[in-house]
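Record Permease, 348 aa.
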Amino acid sequence: MPPLLIRLVLAEVTRWYAAGVALFLSLQMIDALSSTVAKLLQFRPPVDKAALAFLSIAPGILNKSLVLAVPFAILLAFSRMQRDSELKAISAGGVPPLRLVWPLALPFVLVAALAYVNGDRIVPSNLARWDTAWFNIYNIPLPLQTQKKYTYAPPGALYYAGSVISTGDGTTAQLQGVMVQRGGEILTASSGTWDSRARTWTLLSPWRARPGQPPQLLNKPLTVPQTDTLRPPPAKAEQTTTPDLRARAADPQVLPADQREAAFQIVRRMADPLTAVVFALAAGALGLLLRNRAAAFAAVLVFLVSFYVLWTTVPGLARAGALSPALAAWLPNLAFVLLAAALAWRLR
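=>
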């Protein structure tokens, strides 16, 4: 294909791509502002605090915009070329329309690289700052860290707590829904405390059950040894750095669902940026079949909604174990690769 033709097509797509990135950035920032404007009016934060909150989510919004703008740009660019009969002229000149699609993927490899660096290095820490910024706006301290369904099983014993609520000093925590099995007895209590410095659990008014004896209510606290280390609960997976996610996915003491979620996030951080390249191929093949701008706008909507449905469904499937984390992360891209292949076969 003539290099001049490639440059003309890329110039047309680039013009629409810049407009698309600006459009999706604006829409997402307006959505974030509209969902928080009532809180901003209620708490009247200083401008610098409000600006810090929105700057912290800007990298994540940028990543989404870089990817979402791809089908927008290609479909509208091709619809304009269809309307002005440029694609017909290219085909009449002996250039198969499908050959226009492959060069489109090359510049979006650079977009994918930018999105990967941003999503892997910058977005996680900024999402954590978003939460912190809002607690500063509320003028309240950060909530206590809570770990759900804690389990520790040293030889000959089992320790369980429905919730472990850190008190913030790093050495003590409040326990809720406590069960301790040691030797031939089982202790249960609705609440208790954990002193990691003394390496003990203290159960408040526990019930004690022993084989062959009725359960007995103890009307005073009971302290039992507990040699595990009090660790802070894991941060949200999307707010965690990739090295920490790898450690979490390989940690046998982490709940299986949390391990799967960590493994899913690791793969998604590679899969999501490459969506720009997949979109370029699928949207390019689809754009060659459209005949007017109205159809292009409808195709953009169907394109993005279909992808969004898949993209938002697979995390739950991965966490529940219905799909492997790797397959779940790649599934939206795989679906659109198949779409691109089917459209390419139609155009061959």
